[in-house]
Amino acid sequence: MKKTLALALAAATALSTGAFAQEITEFRIGILGGENAQDRLTNNQCLADKISEALDVPVKMFAPADYNGVIQGILGGSIDLALLGPSSYAALHIADPEAASPILVKVNLDGSIGYHSIGFARVDSGLTSLDDVQGKTFGFGDPNSTSGYLVPSIEIPEITGATMDSGDYFGEVRFTGGHEQTILAVKNGDIDAGVTWADGQGNWEDGYNFGALRKAVDAGLVDMNDLTEIWRSKLIPGEPIVLRNALPDDARASVTQIMDTLGETDPQCAYGVGGGEIQGFDPITHDAYTSIVGARRAKIGG
């Protein structure tokens, strides 16, 4: 990648001490919600195989029903690695700043870092903007999702001048349970509009280059020609790869190297892990997410 691996390894070991230098008998990967569990496991199996070979231990994958399951798994020491949304990382950091550190971030095809919350509706609904959704049913994904809740719950009220409470601007606000659920709820007409995530690059017909829409297209769940974008957030900081700080230094270094070079060594695996077409992963530190941590404290508390 453009930045040196040395930076990634420094970030990976910055909070680790000799007290943590212990043998591990297995390695655990947590996968955020947003699509069905089997797809999540299948898309990350290649990464599990690479880590298992490098560490010479079994690798287990966990796909909890909601984002909080991964957050609590890291806090409780039962998950070692996860690709988190910025808000989920903020929740983790607020709960325990010493539990885990961001080491790498997903990089877009053009070399940029970040993604957007995308508001969308059915084409045949006639809804083309947030103005049109006033009084309608609007869907969020998960309370711990950055694009599926935190960012739109801050930015949309700045546009509408109203709260996100049901009956204020939107007729009803619902939590669907995840990004895939939001996409299907809009597709099926269960809600009028909702938000999900995407890089916002590439073609709408493909679900953009990566994100929940691209995953839904790849899975054959949706035809993007049936949907239309009605709102887009400002750029959100990219999703961090987070490693538990209590892991031995050599394990942290090995896993970091695998992830840092994944885009070059196995682009197809990077596609599955990253949720679509990505360049790979670059080093990142906590400093990139201080604004998200602040926003989460202000919005949700903790």
TrEMBL record:
In the record, biological process GO terms are: organic phosphonate transport; transmembrane transport
Top-rank taxon of the source lineage equals Bacteria
Family of this protein:
Belongs to the phosphate/phosphite/phosphonate binding protein family.
Leader peptide range in chain numbering:
1-21
Q: Which gene encodes it?
A: phnD
Q: Per UniProt, which keywords does this protein have?
A: Signal
Membrane-crossing ranges are: none
Q: Which GO terms describe its cellular component?
A: ATP-binding cassette (ABC) transporter complex
Family matches, as InterPro entries: PhnD, Phosphnate-bd
What is the name listed in the Swiss-Prot or TrEMBL entry for this protein?
Answer: Phosphonate ABC transporter substrate-binding protein
